[in-house]
UniProtKB/TrEMBL annotation:
PANTHER family in the record: NONSENSE-MEDIATED MRNA DECAY FACTOR SMG9
Gene Ontology biological process terms, A to Z: nuclear-transcribed mRNA catabolic process, nonsense-mediated decay
Protein name: Protein SMG9
Lineage per the UniProt record: Eukaryota, Metazoa, Chordata, Craniata, Vertebrata
InterPro entries xrefs: SMG9
Source species: Dissostichus mawsoni (Antarctic cod)
Length: 109
């Protein structure tokens, strides 16, 4: 996303608009983005980066930190992701889906 929006491969990754996962976050099985992050280019193109869809890492983070689940987590693994997906399909002209494992047909439904 950073290379599409504003950065070049020669730049230091710490200065990227959308940061890649650090080694610590990868080892924890966590995610870099929480919610929706955005960046607007000089050409007025808006890039949106979201937390993982249909991934239990956020729920796992809440449970392991002994936090009480918020009321919007009635269906913990799908409700928030459905809201984000509905928002993206409402406001975006192009949605790029990236998967790091085998194709999950539930994501496309």
């Amino acid at each position: 996303m950073s290379l599409l929006s504003a950065n070049t491969p020669e730049e230091d990754q710490r200065g990227y608009v959308f940061r890649a996962q650090s080694q610590e976050i990868k080892e924890r099985g966590g995610n870099q983005s929480t919610g929706i992050d955005f960046f607007i280019t000089q050409e007025r193109v808006i890039f949106l980066d979201t937390q993982p869809m249909l991934s239990p890492s956020i729920l796992d983070h809440l449970i392991n930190n002994d936090r009480k689940l918020p009321p919007e987590y009635n269906l913990p693994h799908t409700y928030v992701e459905m809201q984000i997906a509905a928002f993206l399909f409402t406001v975006c002209h192009v949605v790029i889906v990236v998967q790091d494992w085998f194709t999950d047909l539930n994501l496309y439904r």
